[in-house]
Structures are given as structure tokens and as C-alpha cells.
Write a structure and sequence with these properties.
single chain, alpha+beta, Rossmann fold, Beta-Lactamase, Thrombin, subunit H, 4 domains, 6-stranded antiparallel beta barrel, 6-stranded antiparallel barrel, 22 strands
Length: about 500
């Protein structure tokens, strides 16, 4: 790309005031600048230039020195009082050091000789754009750094799209580089530092950058190789800059000491009852003010909303969430908590209270759950009261009720479990769903998948269903309609 093409691409984001008393030269330079700057203002002396600037605070000023009424240096001093950040390019036909020193004292950004050469002015303007951009990025980084991050030891990096713009000293120390140029030469794109690991961010089917943009404000796991060859585990947090949607700040907090690196990636060695680890992780989420997601199931109907962890005391947790979620929590007496940062979902049990005035719910028992309803692939619903269900096992028929049903399985509840029933046994199932004239009759074979005892001295048997296409479509329609019924029912609950 030529220097003029580059100038045209970048100049559209900037405004410029040009001040020159020589009419011929002014017209010539104005025609050149008008090709690049949409917001261009022109004055014929310093006094007019000052008045124009007060009305249109441009980022850049190009001015002659010797002019009637008010010369360029006097005007420059006044402009600097109005806006210390304005970039002033002083043009003069006098090759005199005195003018150069005076221009520097007046706060000039650059000094250019007259007659103005197109190439020289273009180069100076591009330098000007780069310097303004650097100042803006530095201000953004400084302004948001304290707000976003709670720990001084974080690695901090400001990115524009995927390009690193500014990093803190801790970042350079960790990667053992002098500056970002050194980092880029050593690693290339920043995403290359992420090591492949299950449950961690890295370039897999989607790019690392897309992954973090989808999870702004959340905590993510990142594995990065240290200079000594060992691996560090970081909690990565992303903050987008409101003033410029192309820029984000990454914070990487080294949490290797928690010993989670192997646990998250390998569920075989993960200890779900490790209460100390769970408390440390939830406290870390709380301190970072990172949102979590709460999940409840009203008769199978999924109700999920964001929440925040307000307090952690020993094994107790206080969560703030929406009114609908509080309502669902009160009905179930528990809630499931999920976060991309956690190795597994967390069950919050032992409901102490729901405080609608403060929007909080308190639980006295928390623990990791390896499998939960959140991980279900298919929607399950609890049928309406009055449905009928029978299970044929051997030569006997047994009455039962359907606790929930999906297009793949049914959970059947028995007061007395059929004798000698075990997993993998083949059974026949008759289920009549629906109220009134519109009923769905399911008669099919199935296989026992799981046997679960319940607190009420009953037993739940999960049966995998073998359904034909026509029954399958009817069941899909039933589940969809039942969800609508449950939504209406939930809305008027406790009103």
C-alpha cells in the first residue's frame, strides 16, 4: 500500500485545521488535504484559526508561522491551553533555529519546511495519527486497568482485534521479552501461547479470539508454557472497552497453586468432594465479580438465569439472581450453578431462605456434581396429573407413574420394585399421556438403564425407549405442548 493510500485509509478518523495567509499556497495545500480529510477547516491567519478551533476542536493543526493579526506560534500557545493534546505541525520558509526552538516551546508536534512537499507532509501526518492512537490506547489502558482487575500480579494486555497494543511489566517478565515487538517476533499471534488442553481455551474448532469474545466478563481457563518449560494455569478474564468495540483488555491471573491443571482436563483424577478446592474456586469467582449461571427445573421445565456470588462462609453460599430464578429455587429447594471456569457444575442444596427484597438465596450445602440435568441432551418434562403407566416385566404387569419423559427415555416410579429387575433387562412399557380427548398412547419395548432409590422409599427406573417414527413425532409434539403448559403454570405459581 502506498503512503497516499495509507493516508487516505487513516485520515477519515481524524479532523484537521489548516492555517496559512498565502492564498495561493493555502489553496494548493487545501486541495491536497481535502482528498483525505472529511473534517477539514481552513483559516487565513492565526486569529481566524483560533476562532475556528474553538468551534471545531480538531485533533491536528497545520499552521504557518508568520501571519498577520496573530502568528502561528502565538496561536499554537492558545490552542495548547484549550487542548494540551492537540498535535500542531508548524510550517515555515525560514530555516532558522530560533523559530524551531520557539515552535518546540509552543508545543509543536513537528516542524516542516515551506514550500510544503506532499511526501514530507504525508509522512508527518501518518506519524501524527500513530502518536494520537498510542496516546488514546495508553489512556484507555490506564483508565480501565484498576476498574477491571483486582490483583496486581495479573498479566495485562490491551488488544485491538487480535493485535497486542499495550502490556504491563508482569506480562513481559512472564514471557521473558523486552517489549511487544520482541513478543510478536517470538510468538506471533497472541493465541499461539495457549496450550491445547481439555476444558481450556485454545485454537480448536473455533479460534481462541472468538471463544473469548463469546465469554466477555466470564472467567476462562488457560494453560501457558513458562520459560522454564513448566506449565502455568491462568484464570483469563476479558473486558471490552465501551468507547471502542474493537479493543479488549485481557487479564491473566496465575492460579497454578490451586492444583487444578490436571483435575480439570482429566475427570478420572478429579476429586468431586474436595470442599477446600470448591470454596477457593467460588471465592475466586466472587472476588472477580464474575457472573455465574443458575439452573432450576420446574417439573422438567428448564429455568436458567445469571447470578452473582455475594458471600461465602465455610460451606455456605449467598447468591443474588432474578425474581424468576428465586421463584424456581423456592419450589425446588436447591439450584445448580455453572461456569466455564469450573471443572464441574455445583449443586447448591440445603436452602436456608429466599429474600425477594434483596434478590438473594442462601444455601448451607454445596458440592461438585459430575453429572447433572444441565448436561442433558434431551428435554424432559413431568406429565400432568392423571396419566397412566404400566411396565411389563416377565409375565407380570406393574403399575407405576411417569416422573419425567423425553424422546429417548422415561423415568418410572414404583412403590415396589419388580423382583430381580436389573440394568440391561428388556421390558415393555404402556404410557397414556394427555388430559381429555387428546391422548398420546405409547406402547413400546425398552431397556432398563438405571435404578435409583428415592427418599420416599420408592424406586425410580430409567427405561430407554425404542420408539417408531410416528410415535416419536407425536411425543415431540406432546413435550412441546407440555412445556407451554408448564410455563403458564410456573408464571402463576405462588401468586
Amino acid at each position: 500500500m502506498s503512503i497516499l493510500q495509507t493516508l487516505k485509509e487513516k485520515a477519515k478518523d481524524y479532523s484537521l485545521l489548516y492555517v496559512e495567509d498565502n492564498e495561493s499556497l493555502r489553496n494548493q495545500v487545501e486541495r491536497f488535504l481535502a482528498k483525505f480529510f472529511t473534517n477539514l477547516y481552513v483559516a487565513q491567519d492565526g486569529e481566524e484559526g483560533l476562532q475556528l478551533y474553538k468551534k471545531n476542536t480538531t485533533q491536528i493543526v497545520v499552521t504557518d508561522i508568520r501571519m498577520p493579526k496573530m502568528d502561528g506560534l502565538q496561536m499554537a500557545k492558545q490552542l495548547k491551553k484549550i487542548n494540551p493534546k492537540v498535535k500542531i505541525i508548524v510550517a515555515s520558509a525560514f530555516d532558522d533555529k530560533e523559530y524551531l526552538y520557539d515552535a518546540i516551546k509552543a508545543g509543536a508536534f513537528r516542524y516542516i519546511k515551506k514550500p510544503i512537499a506532499v511526501e514530507s507532509l504525508s509522512e508527518i501526518l501518518l506519524e501524527c495519527f500513530e502518536f494520537i492512537s498510542y496516546e488514546e490506547n495508553s489512556e484507555i489502558f490506564t483508565r480501565y486497568m484498576k476498574d477491571i482487575f483486582n490483583y496486581q500480579d495479573n498479566l495485562l494486555l490491551l488488544l485491538e482485534n487480535k493485535k497486542p497494543l499495550i502490556a504491563n511489566q508482569k506480562f513481559f517478565e512472564f514471557f521473558d521479552v523486552k517489549d511487544l515487538n520482541d513478543f510478536n517476533a517470538k510468538h506471533g499471534e497472541f493465541g499461539n501461547v495457549f496450550c491445547e488442553e481439555r476444558g481450556f481455551i485454545y485454537n480448536n474448532e473455533t479460534s481462541w479470539y472468538e471463544q473469548i469474545l463469546k465469554n466477555k466478563g466470564k472467567l476462562l481457563n488457560a494453560k501457558i508454557k513458562k520459560k522454564n518449560g513448566e506449565f502455568a494455569h491462568f484464570a483469563l478474564k476479558v473486558k471490552q472497552i465501551p468507547e471502542d468495540r474493537t479493543k479488549i483488555i485481557l487479564s491473566l491471573d496465575d492460579i497454578s497453586e490451586l492444583g487444578l491443571l490436571k483435575s480439570i482436563s482429566n475427570t478420572n483424577i478429579f476429586a468431586p468432594r474436595d470442599e477446600k478446592l470448591l470454596l477457593n474456586l467460588l471465592n475466586f469467582i466472587r472476588l472477580n465479580e464474575t457472573p455465574i449461571r443458575l439452573h432450576n427445573y420446574y417439573k422438567g421445565l428448564s429455568i436458567a438465569n445469571e447470578g452473582t456470588i455475594e458471600e461465602m462462609q465455610e460451606n455456605k453460599i449467598l447468591i443474588k439472581t432474578s425474581y424468576l430464578q428465586q421463584k424456581a429455587i423456592r419450589f425446588e429447594g436447591l439450584s445448580l450453578l455453572s461456569s466455564e471456569f469450573l471443572p464441574h457444575n455445583v449443586e447448591c442444596n440445603g436452602l436456608e431462605f429466599v429474600d425477594e427484597d434483596n434478590g438473594t438465596a442462601s444455601f448451607k450445602k454445596i458440592n461438585f456434581v459430575i453429572q447433572s440435568q444441565i448436561d442433558r441432551k434431551y428435554v424432559r418434562v413431568r406429565p400432568e396429573e392423571g396419566h397412566k403407566a404400566f411396565l411389563h416385566y416377565g409375565a407380570q404387569r406393574y403399575d407405576c407413574s411417569v416422573r419425567d419423559i423425553s424422546i429417548k427415555a422415561a423415568r418410572l416410579r414404583f412403590e415396589t420394585l419388580p423382583a430381580r429387575m436389573k440394568v440391561e433387562d428388556l421390558v415393555k412399557v404402556d404410557i397414556a399421556l394427555g388430559v381429555g380427548s387428546k391422548k398420546l398412547i405409547i406402547r413400546t419395548t425398552g431397556k432398563v438403564f438405571r435404578l435409583d432409590e428415592t427418599p420416599k422409599d420408592a424406586t425410580d427406573v430409567v427405561v430407554m425407549l425404542d420408539l417408531g417414527d410416528s410415535v416419536l413425532e407425536d411425543l415431540r409434539e406432546y413435550i412441546s405442548n407440555r412445556q407451554i403448559e408448564l410455563i403458564k403454570e410456573f408464571k402463576v405459581l405462588d401468586k
